[in-house]
Design brief:
The complex is a heterotrimer of chains A (345), B (445) and C (351). With 345 residues, chain A is mostly helical. Chain A is 66% helix and 0% strand. By secondary structure, chain B is of the alpha/beta class. Helices cover 32% and strands 22% of the residues of chain B. In chain B, strands 7-8-9-4-10-11-16-15 form an 8-stranded mixed β-sheet, sandwiched between helices. A 4-stranded antiparallel β-sheet of chain B has the order 3-2-5-6. Chain B has a 3-stranded antiparallel β-sheet with strand order 12-14-13. In chain C, the strands form 3 sheets. Chain C has an 8-stranded mixed β-sheet, sandwiched between helices. In chain C, helix 4 (136-149) packs across helix 5. Classes of the chains: A mainly alpha (345), B alpha/beta (445), C alpha/beta (351). At the B-C interface, strand 1, helix 8, helix 9, helix 10 and helix 12 of B face helix 4, helix 5, helix 6, helix 7 and helix 8 of C.
Chain lengths: 345, 445, 351
Amino acid sequence: MTSEFMVPTTSPAAEAAPSKGRRVRGIRRALAPIAEARGLPKWVLFIGIGIVLVFVVFAIFAPWISPYKFDQYLTTSGQRFPKSGAPSGSHWFGTNIMSTDVFSHIVYGARTALEVIVIAVVISLFVGVPLGLFSGYYGGPLDRMLVLVMDAMFAFPSLLLAILVAFLLRGKFGFLGASFSGIMAAAISITVIYIPQYFRVIRNSVISVRENPYVEAARVLGAKPRTVIAKYVFGNVVQNVPVIGTLNAADALLTLAGLGFLGYGVQPTEAAEWGYDLQRALGEASGGIWWTSVYPGLAIVLLVTGLTLVGESLNDLINPTLRRRQLLPIDRAEMAGEDEVVAGR
Amino acid sequence: MSQTKPEAVSPKPSAGATKLGGEPLLNVEDLNVHFALRGGTFSRFVGGARGAVKAVDGVSFTLRRGEVLGVVGESGSGKTTLGRAILHTVPVTSGRITFDGRDITDLSDSQIRPLRRRMQMVFQDPNAALNPAMDLLAAVGHPLRIHGIKDQDEISRRVVEAFERVGLVPTDQFLHKYPADLSGGQKQRAVIARAIILGPELLVADEPVSMLDMSVRAKILELMLELKNDLGLTYVYVTHDLATAKFFCDTIAIMYLGRIVEYGPADAIYADPKHPYTRSLLRAIPEPDPTKSVPRDLPRGEIPDAAKPPLGCSFHPRCSKAFEICGWESRDLRDLLDRHWLAHREDEFEQERRIVGDLATLDVPSLRADLPAGANQTGQDVLALLDRIKEDDPHEPMWSGVRDVSDAGSSVHVDFREDNIDPPLYDVGRQRVACLLYRDAENPS
Amino acid sequence: MTLIDGELSVNTDAVMSVRNLKVWYGTARGPVRAVDGVSFDMRRGETLGLVGESGSGKSTLGRGVLRLLPDAAQVTGKVLFRGQDLVTMRKKDLRALRGPELGLIFQEPMTRLNPLMRISDHFLETLHTHEPALSKDQMRRRSIDTLGAMGIPPTRFTNYPHEFSGGMRQRIMIALALVLNPAFVVADEPTTALDVLVEAQIIQILADIKRNFDTSILLITHNLGIIAEACERVAVMYAGRIVEQGDARAVFAQPAHPYTRELLASTISLATTELHYIPGSPPDLIDPPSGCRFHPRCPDAMQVCPTRHPPTVTTTLNQQVDCWLHGPEDQIPAGGTERLEREALSVADEA
């Protein structure tokens, strides 16, 4: 029996008319906690989403937003841009040591960042989650071996591992075209270090879910293991994924910037990348040239913060153990007002 | 299903009258389900097992079509494991299970899959038995999908039919609800709907009402009875509550530590329980009506460790009717000492405790108990202590099992009788009872 | 409780005196009235059984009395413990009372004992915190005596929790609560997770407690049989209110409130001859039925029942009941005693 001591829930929008598709209802249900959110987590979520959206817009509409191409160092009339020029009317954020426009680098850098992040997160999801599912459900020697491998990868310093993989993959993706090969190599190297995270979280969730009677019920009904996993286990562990996904994205961005800073990431000829820009800008910072380092640095910090805010607030909202029920204030007058009618008066 | 007065439903006299003469549906022969125990930290690294728990220890019975068998016991009795073994969700160590003439003990998962249409389970916790991510239409319809029916309209039609049978009406209100939106009773009805939608013949119900409120239990029990009569179901009703079992069951099997200790028709067992454990269970049921309460006869002690059950009759340490051959051993001596000191004041305990040394040797089951003397004490002191204890309570049945008590210098040897017997099920009237009280010339062990 | 000039006066020789206690939670749909005006007294050494089903508010009441609810719960009313009002007391003072004066026995003993500490350590830590003046030896003695009263042998004093069975652990928990000799203990469904023999043992212990301790116990449960065995008085709770209270034996022999009667009839024991249930389900605590909250399910509902909540009346058998069947007649308008026609209840409304 559920203890009625727990604060009662309000039932989500499951009163939807039966004519609506079940998928829609299912998604609505899953997102219901977000709709019900109040107070701090809700604002944090919206701020985070807002920040991320700005960069997404930059990424998608880069050619229209950015005044110049990212590697453009000549004006239309063939004149060279100023080298490390201060911010001005024609170069809002100034120019850097390569005579390219800083603002363009920020905008195109957003595109690079998001491309890499999306590829990395998607691939690690598609590898880590199924591995975690099967490993957690079946257990046995496969599970033990995978856990060992994943723990070893986890123990490796992530940046070093990423550097190693980037080094090994350099040039291997030539068939994808010049600019994309660098992005792909960076994405793969980042992917590798995040697979263990998805694996671990999903596996642990699966282990606790699989003990539930409804999973046993599914087996008694005669469901094949893959049906049990797909319909009974997956739906109940997947709610961890959005949280890890966003937090991973934040971390992926930092790793990408780190790789770029060290020169192992996306090369400047392939695409604009904030980490690389930072590295080039370091030398001039002591000379009073701040715009070449501050803006890329700010971009990194803002996007990482935005993604982290989204991830953390999603965690607060979706994760049932952390969720603090939003309890509203009560009208004390109403409460005091209903005094008993006492016999004898 | 509209009523304005509380319903009264009479129990199942019809159940007894129906098919007790039916053909056997389920036959269980000498079933054993043992679980290996993991050892301590070290052996866990090395992967070794140490000892085993005999969750089900040699259980046999026959279940006929239309019969309701109540498997009654406390936690650790093995009743839930027995239910699961019948449904093939735990591996069987030895023995045979025959379903409708077919030996299903060693079938693989894929071989047993088609048979699952014919036997299903109703679970204890309605909150956990339904997938929170599926609405009722999907959850109750899923068995149909699994067994080959893919047409959505057909599935919906049959789900609605199942809802009507279990009383989830108006049906369209329930089709798209999720488990979190339902009350406990409604969820349990959904679980039952899911269990019957394939038209099974056998239903294993594991404590189906114990997590529901009192006022709802009767509704669900009534529903299960109706289904039994309408659909010709055969039930295995696993529970610890003899009160609800009385309404529902034709035959009762009382389980203790993996064995059946009493088995027989329900009316016989309730009217004349023969095994001391059965008697205690019956008397322990709380009764709100003050005019009807019965004096208790609670067995002493606790349920023993299933990994190392008592020697002889596994109930003997707790039994008020135990006698010489019931299986007395060293752990009973330990219990005796514990009880003795429990009954006395703490300063007496302090004094006497010094007389004996480490009691851990008594925890190893053996027919010779080696009771060491404490520091600066001799075997004589320990003997004197034992004599005092015996004087305190000369009727303690353990003494009848003691063959000899001897001084071994720095310890005392207490030798127990070796002719103890682990009772099988004896036929006594309409029942079978695993108790040495009923062992007589006609039933030599 | 006595009525003086229409006001429920405070019974000064009661250990615990609760007056018009309300616990409300705010939600988007409106306040949840988990406990909505509860009053009762407890004398020294008395055991009061609080019985109700899920949604009755009994657990909230138990914790509310000890002020163990989350801050978001709004509590009004008076909880007078030896004259001090716990509702308005400062947190610091409340904390000082918990343990030595106020105790709580939980439902699941398996999770409440620290698996890394011996039982002796549990006891010594508790005694050391609240009665540091005692010598180690005195603490040991007291612990062993208390454990002995619960049937735990002294030779097991230094064992770890996992070496005990579930029933023994619950008894150890009870001993831990009682070793400080608190004046008032709330036992929240102490036997619900346990088997029937173990439950019977614990009930016996609770019934015997009076011999060794003079603790007042508020026993919260949904099982009427337990109350009949272990409690002198009983309070029946429905939808956040106490609908009947009085001497346990008397109430069970002759229940005054229809809900009590129905609940008794629904309890399945060996003596039951017919299965009986109450149609419908416990009401929504956000929007409870008007007037008497039981009226939609009550077989004896009258016209007056939905209009106003009945006042508390003391019957001739000295039971307190909130039911228009017992009057007061002068407050029932004409025609109020006619039968109430109610809508049929379907399973959709059911528990």
